[in-house]
Amino acid sequence: MSEAKGGRSAQLKHTGLRPGWTTGACATAATTAAYTALLTGDFPDPVTIVLPRGQSPAFALAVEELVAGRATVGVVKDAGDDPDVTHGALVRATVRRLPPGSGVVFRAGPGVGTVTRPGLPLDVGEPAINPVPRQMMRDHIARVAADHGVTGDVEITVSVDHGEEIARSTWNPRLGILGGLSILGTTGIVVPYSCSAWIDSIRRGVDVARAAGHTHVAGCTGSTSEKTVVAEYGLPEIALLDMGDFAGAVLKYVRRHPVERLTVCGGFAKLSKLAAGHLDLHSARSQVDQGFLAGLARQGGADASLAAEVADANTGLAALQLCAAAGVPLGDLVAVAARDRALSVLRGAPVAVDVICIDRAGAVVGRSDVR
After folding, report:
1. Which residues contact 295 (CB under 8 A, 6 or more apart)?
2. How many CB atoms lie within 10 A of CB 371?
3. Would the pTM of this model clear 0.85, i.e. be above it?
């Protein structure tokens, strides 16, 4: 069997669902078009951008405004076949030139939230524009600036029409992101979400890997964890299972169709849910249990004061950072607990399991041994 028929790419194709674009991709497209218009007087419509994995989608412009010193572009988000609450939202970017040496400055416009609590990958007080979308916008500003012989020093204000209202249907208020939505995305692509289609694609992924003779497969929560597993073990694409939030689907299918070894790799917060006993890791159906993390921290040597701080932490990342500062290996403890939970689901099937926890940048922050 050809390896081209397996792996994450085949899984995505197998679902038969149409992918869409993240708010980060839409903001990047709007920024690129607005800056181009600011420099040339003309709006490129459609505007083409380059995503982190090399795709080059084109976006139609829904809003074009050019006044003295600034340009605004609006792009309507298309989430494909994913039931995303931001599908159809109008994402706007306003670009204003700054003096040379100012760099790229980000602002939150109406409908984009502001970070008010620690534990997120952004400092308190910053606009809720995540690191990868920020880098995408910086890269495209630099490309347009180079094409026109200017320095690329700009202020980018991102806004989302009705974003504050839409955000009430998200976890942003609970996380301390106030005033609107977050601008998100690590690949620029929205993977369409369908429980039945995605679980079926996981099963086909296991089947293809086994048929090709691979004895070590990895269930990954996303593209960053896939890169980590490849770097750690050199696994080919055909051995990578894009499990997303469906850890239980991987474990139950591998229980019936064993492989010699299964690595589970994902973000610390998601895998803390598995460690706590959840098999569906989606935020709508399971939450990070800070009390559970506090209990693990006590097992790892945390005193009562630190455990109380962990129990009150805003996010899983905040709990991890608190423990790291105190020398408590919370990442390893979560990985071991997640591995043991996975083994309990496997019910004695001849499958060795290890777990790797990563942060948002892909750095390993916890791991278990193989059992």
Report:
1. 307
2. 11
3. no
Tokens of 333: 């403890």
The whole-angstrom separation of Cα 331 and Cα 304 is 19
Is residue 166 within 8 A of residue 89, CB to CB? The reply is yes
Please enumerate in sequence order all residues whose Cβ is within 8 A of that of 49, keeping only pairs 6 or more positions apart, or say none. Answer: 25, 28, 29, 32, 56, 57, 59, 136, 140, 188
Q: With contact defined as beta carbons under 8 Å apart, do 117 and 319 qualify?
A: no
Q: Where is 251: in which H helix or E strand? A: helix 247-256
**284: pLDDT strictly greater than 80:** no
Cα separation of 125 and 189, whole Å?
A: 27
Please determine, for residue 4, whether its predicted confidence score (pLDDT) is greater than 90.
Answer: no
Mean of pLDDT values over 294-309: 97
Q: What's the DSSP call for residue 364?
A: E
In the prediction, which pLDDT does 7 show?
Answer: 54
Tokens found for residue 61? 């412009």
Name the token pair of 2.
């050809």
The H-assigned helical ranges of 219-284 are 223-233, 247-256, 268-275
Please give the radius of gyration of the chain, using alpha carbons only, rounded to the nearest integer: 22
Question: What is the pLDDT at residue 2?
Answer: 39
How many residues does this entry show for the chain? 371
Q: For the chain, report the end-to-end CA distance as a whole number of angstroms.
A: 30
Confidence (pLDDT) at 222: 87
Query: Is it the case that residue 201 has pLDDT exceeding 80?
Result: no
| CA–CA gap between residue 149 and residue 311 (Å, rounded) | 52
| Tokens read off for 80 | 């494909």
What are the tokens at 72?
A: 């605004």
For residue 352, the cross-strand partners are 261
Distance CA 92, CA 221 (A): 30
Peptide bond into 46 cis (omega under 30): yes
Composition of the chain by helix, strand, coil, percent to 5: 40, 20, 40
Question: What is the C-alpha to C-alpha distance for residues 337 and 73, in angstroms, rounded to an integer?
Answer: 48
Of the two residues 27 and 196, the one the predictor is more confident about is 27
pLDDT by residue (tens digit) across 290-301? 999 999 999 999
Neighbours of 16 (CB within 10 A): 12
